[in-house]
Design a protein that fits this description.
Layout (H helix, E strand, L loop, with lengths): L7 E4 L3 E5 L9 E5 L12 H22 L3 E5 L9 E7 L4 E3 L2 E3 L18 H14 L1
Antiparallel strand pairs: 1-2, 2-3, 3-5, 4-5, 6-7
Length: 136
């Protein structure tokens, strides 16, 4: 079982922000509801909703500062993991270099698609996590 605590960027009252293991989109994060029985975004409590909007705004601005992201996608799907969580996906109109890795958003201007073959070296993943944590 994966120890997701090593991916923690920030712990909020109702949500956790974790860096996603696949950084095919530089700065990609998972926003995870801490309430154990949370399943559907439409069932989020008022407090969870309010904090979520704050988090997404803070994360957006932090990612702009950290990586100069151009746009953002937000996906609350629940297909693979039946728990209330969202994918925060920064988008880039041109390539970005970070930690000697070139990140290219080949689908800029279109729906995002995870490249399951993209491998994020552990040291790069940790550098992304720390950069976002520092910006938040």
């Amino acid at each position: 079982m994966t120890d997701y605590s090593k991916f923690l960027v920030k712990d909020y009252t109702h949500w956790l922000v974790n860096v996603h293991e696949n950084q095919g989109y530089l700065g990609r994060c998972i926003v995870w509801c801490k309430r154990e029985d949370a399943l559907d975004l439409a069932d989020a409590t008022e407090a969870e909703q309010k904090e979520l909007i704050t988090i997404l705004g803070e994360l957006r601005e932090a990612t702009k500062r950290a990586f100069q992201a151009d746009w953002f996608n937000y996906a609350f799907l629940g297909n693979g993991t039946r728990h209330l969580h969202g994918h925060f996906i920064p988008r880039y109109s041109s390539s970005r270099m970070f930690e000697r890795v070139t990140f290219v958003d080949d689908r800029w201007g279109h729906n995002y698609r995870t490249d399951h073959d993209f491998v994020t070296p552990p040291e790069v993943l940790e550098a992304v996590r720390i950069k976002l944590k520092d910006e938040l």
